[in-house]
Structures are given as C-alpha cells and as structure tokens.
C-alpha cells in the first residue's frame, strides 16, 4: 500500500486527504496541517460562496458537480454549515457559450438556474445601474459554506479513518518524497502533495523544486452592519463587486485586488480598497453603512496561471494541489475527488 503525504491543512489539503481515505486505507494517508499557520489562511477568511455556474466551462463542470454533491449529502451540508440563499451572477452580456453552461448546471441541479435580463433583475429592487445589455444568471439552490468549519470537521473524520494528522510546520520536502517537519524526524513517502495554499511557494523555495508559476495574491472584503434580507450571494462582473449576507446583521462585500506576491501574514487591509468597495456597493446595491464603518478582512491566496484547483506534478511523486485562482471552495469537492483518484492510479 503506497504511503501518501498531504502538506497543508486548509480546505484543499484536508479535503484531498479525506478523499484519499475513500480510495485507500486511512493508515496510508498522512496530513501535515501546518498549525498554527492555518488559522490565518484563506480557508479561515474565505467568504465561502458556493454556486454551480462559472463562465469557464471546466470550472463550471467542477462547481456544478461539487454543489450537486453538497446538495445530496446532509452530512456534508452539516459539516460545512451550508446555508442556501440563492445567487446572482451578473455578466456584461450573453456570451455564445453561456446557454450551454446553464444547460450543464440544469443537468446536475434541475430547476435551480435561469437567465434573466438586467431589467428584470433591476425590477426586483436590489441591483441598480446595470449596464445596458447585461444579463444575470440566477441560481435558486446556491448559497455559502464555512470552509473553516468544513476543514475542521474533516480533520476529525480523518483521525477516525485512521489517517495520521500531524500539527506543526514542515520545513522542506525533497524530490525523493521526504517530508521534513520542523519538530520531528524526516519521513519518506511514495507521494507528497503540497496543498499549503499561500505558503506553497515558500515551502518549495526551500527545496530545489520549481513553483510552476504559482503566485500569491491578497483577497480583501469588508463586513458591515446590515438590516433586512440582503442581496443574497452575488458576483457582479460589470463592476467587480461580490458579496452575501455574512451572518445575522452583517453583510460581506468585496472587490478583486491587484496586490500580488505578498508574503502570507503581511497582508494589511488597504484603506483605499475599503473605500472603493463601499463606493461601488452604494452605486450598485444602494448599501451605505452608518458612518461607513466596516471591518476589513484580508488573507493571501495562491494562484496558478491556468486557474482551477488541480493536481499538478512537480517531480516524480511530488505534486501541488493549490492555485485555484481564488474561490476554490466552489470546486473543491469535485476537484479533490478527481485528484485523489488520479494520484492513487499513478501509484499502482
């Protein structure tokens, strides 16, 4: 039985380790969580938006399969603290392939998805000032999860399955499949998967392994007071704004950043971006918190040029499972299943 190490205890690493336990004996799986660093990672800060539609066909397939599995599993929904709110994805216009992607989602989650015009969306009273020609992909059965809650439960389930879960930092890995913990003796494995998110580059830099183009980027959103039902979960490609009701009495809103190559832990909130988020939110959904007082939240995420959360080889028996280009929580259920099966097949 091959021995496999997963380095990184965020949602991607924990889910991959759990998937591996579904196809091989749990005692062959060893997860290094990276404590205490994972408590400040993107899984802890993630907004957790979960929907089936994505403008990219490959990502749409994985997101639809992931949401379909979540919808069909009361256990997973409970572990992930899933809340169904519906979602709106605003597009500048109807692209040639959009209808096909909507049909794909319908085949996985019947009765959930539809396309409406910006005028129809505006008549519902939440969104305003949408550009002419824009359309909205509306999903009834989308919502959000807590990636932090899900990975914490997965760690419990991994221990029950007999997997080895080791807290503490890993100093390095080698081409020969050796993992060198900061506190502990080196261990040799048949395969090592680095799923350390924003820490992946730093870990690989301490070895002779290339990072395959991985880069870090800051994600930032604000949490502000809110009364009412809220806009639900949404992404607005015409303005960049995204958001959802975060918890009772609070609204989460964000915009993409252009802060690349930031060291994890060094991502202080950008006050200029906070102001811009509030300005766009006021224009698009009429949101203006009292005194414009909000809490800014930041984390550092890992990105790959090709996007998508997938298993990427670095050397024989050494892989990364990261670089989802943000929002990997939408695809992690399907992506981790595919990665686990592919990895086990390669070792047989």
Automatic annotation (TrEMBL):
GO cellular component terms, A-Z: cytoplasm
InterPro entries linked to this entry: FAD-dep_OxRdtase, FAD/NAD-bd_sf
Domain FAD dependent oxidoreductase span(s) in chain numbering: 3-339
Pfam families recorded: DAO
Name assigned to this protein: Glycine/D-amino acid oxidase
